[in-house]
Write a structure and sequence with these properties.
heterodimer, A: 252 residues, alpha+beta, Immunoglobulin-like, 6-stranded mixed beta sheet, 4-stranded antiparallel beta sheet, 41% strand, B: 303 residues, mainly alpha, two-stranded antiparallel sheet, 10 helices
């Protein structure tokens, strides 16, 4: 009996070894409300590594990503034409996250193998989908770098090594800053646990970022009923104009 | 206090917006200009996307010019017939302008168009104002004024489709007011200005209208053209930010009242020199930005 079962037992053991470490995560909030006075927010992502057996060998690493909704966009480059700086070359981006933060427990090269990055699409470069690199543009490869650089300077892309704290190889936590110029949509927070650069387990949770209140209403109306919105804007302006003229006539 | 603007999708200090509205309001109260040509570039400088700045400024001008037009309507210093012809031209010009705007927005050149228009027009208007007011200052020192002819016949009077404008006491062709109106409408749509700085001189020197009805008639045309432009921009480009417009307007109304009172106490010619230098300053800054290599050559646009 044992002889027949032995290969299966080994398989089960191997499978459970791969899943020896599991992640349990929680977020400080899974809704972010963009209110009229929204000035950025911080999300605390924390959790624990659950083990059924003693800790396996290999360097432990944690990588946490927060990705905003992807968006089609276009990157343009200025050149000097007749003395003034004009947009000339443009490269299309099929999809690039509007927000992307990578926090890790150590410099990311040390805890994530390149091949694993290719598989799981973890670093920001892997998240950007270029429709096609045009052949007729000089150094077209500088466009992806420019996209990342611009979004970094706007606080929309961030790579923060050593910002994930691990305590007793079990508990972990990090803070991810969401800037004021946030785009609404569904955000995904993913926690990856690595051993010697290989991803052992991952867990994703969603964060709902929404405009609320008057801002939400204005945005929806402007995009869904543009003509009505235009008329209302004009009516509001005309009313305030009339109101002001009446009030100041009384004062004078 | 930071405020998140729902259409511009940027977070800006509300007091900064109120302050800008107030500052431009003071200037417009002092000089009797709409202020759109100063407000729109200032909005670029604080980081509002140019497409949103232009469309929103059109909306703000509706409020400002409507209150002015109402006052002139009550005082009957408004040539309604002339206003309607200017308006007809204006609607055609604004329609064309919004289409040009949308087409260039799609190919990523709208910022350039708006900025170049500003440099050209602010440059011309600023220089003319500077020269004119410098002359006025030296003239008032000499205390002698050259005589001006009351009525001059020019090529304008040879054009067909003549119409009687009773309030203005004119009998001229409808073509020049239509063309002036169209140019103003085009500028309103592309630059987010009322266009008073073009229309008022054109009405006085080109059409020969009496000064008394010029401002009221110009405000009448501006109210309806900018209202139309706002609706067109909202419909075609979705770039009107009503929250931004409202904050600017509150600042603007208060500022205009302060400005009107300040303007009475100060000397007109010297004020105009200051205003012309301000216009040239904004023009210079915009030209500088176009000519000098920007720190970041790349930009991200949405589709």
């Amino acid at each position: 009996m044992m002889r027949i079962l032995a290969p299966f037992l080994i398989l089960i053991a191997a499978a459970s070894a791969a899943e020896d470490e599991r992640i349990i995560t929680a977020l400080s909030q899974n809704r972010v409300a963009i209110t009229a006075n929204f000035d950025g927010s911080e999300i605390l992502i924390y959790g624990a590594i659950k083990r059924e057996s003693p800790q396996p060998e290999g360097k432990l690493g944690l990588v946490i990503t927060v990705a905003g909704p992807p968006e089609r966009s276009i990157v343009r480059r200025k050149e000097r034409v007749f003395g003034i700086w004009v947009n000339v070359d443009a490269v299309e981006v099929g999809a690039a996250p509007t927000f992307y933060a990578v926090a890790s427990s150590a410099p990311i090269e040390d805890i994530l193998l390149h091949i694993e990055d290719l598989r799981y699409n973890i670093r920001v470069e892997r998240m950007i989908d270029w429709v096609e690199m045009p052949q007729d543009i000089d150094d077209a490869l500088e466009f992806p770098d420019a996209l990342v650089r611009i979004r970094q300077s706007q606080g929309l892309y961030a790579e923060k090594p050593e910002s994930v704290e691990i305590r007793d190889d079990t508990l972990f936590g990090t803070q991810v800053a969401l800037p004021a110029n946030l785009v609404e949509g569904e955000y995904t927070a993913t926690v990856y646990i690595t051993r010697d650069g290989k991803v052992v387990d991952s867990h994703a949770s969603t964060i709902d970022v929404r405009k609320v209140g008057l801002g939400r209403w204005i945005y929806a109306l402007a995009h869904e009923q543009p003509l009505l919105y235009g008329l209302l804007s004009v009516l509001l302006a005309a009313f305030t104009g009339w109101f002001a003229s009446t009030v100041f006539r009384r004062i004078a | 206090m930071q405020i998140y603007l729902p259409i511009a999708e940027v977070s800006v200090n509300a007091f900064l917006l109120l302050g800008l509205g107030g500052l431009v309001g003071i200037l417009s109260g002092m000089f009797g200009v709409g202020g759109g040509f100063l407000m729109t570039p200032l909005l670029f400088f604080i980081g509002i996307p140019p497409a949103v700045a232009v469309a929103t400024e059109a909306n703000q001008i509706v409020a400002a010019s409507f209150s002015g037009a109402l006052a002139h309507f009550r005082r009957k210093t408004l040539d309604l017939w002339m206003g309607l012809i200017l308006l007809a031209g204006g609607l055609v010009g604004a329609t064309a302008g919004v289409q040009v705007f949308a087409a260039l927005k799609a190919v990523g050149q709208v910022d350039l168009l708006v900025r170049v228009c500003y440099v050209v027009f602010l440059g011309i208007i600023g220089s003319l104002m500077f020269i004119e007011s410098a002359r006025a200052v030296s003239r008032s020192r000499r205390k002698t004024q050259p005589r001006r002819k009351l009525h001059q016949h020019s090529w304008i009077h040879g054009l067909p489709f003549k119409v009687k404008f009773r309030t203005s006491g004119l009998y001229i062709s409808a073509i020049p007011p239509l063309l002036v109106g169209a140019l103003v409408g085009l500028l309103a749509a592309i630059m987010g200005v009322g266009g008073g700085f073009i229309m008022v001189p054109a009405m006085i020197y080109l059409l020969g209208m009496p000064t008394k009805v010029v401002i009221g008639t110009s405000l009448f045309q501006i109210t309806f053209v900018t209202a139309f432009t706002t609706i067109m921009h909202a419909h075609t480009n979705q770039t009107v930010d009503v929250a931004l417009a409202f904050l600017l307007f509150i600042g603007g109304v208060v500022g205009a009242q302060i400005g009107a009172r300040l303007g009475v106490k100060l000397q007109a010619e010297q004020l105009r020199i200051i205003l012309s230098m301000l216009v040239l300053g904004v023009c210079g800054k915009l030209a500088f930005d176009l000519l000098v290599q920007p720190a970041e050559l790349y930009s991200i646009g949405t589709q």
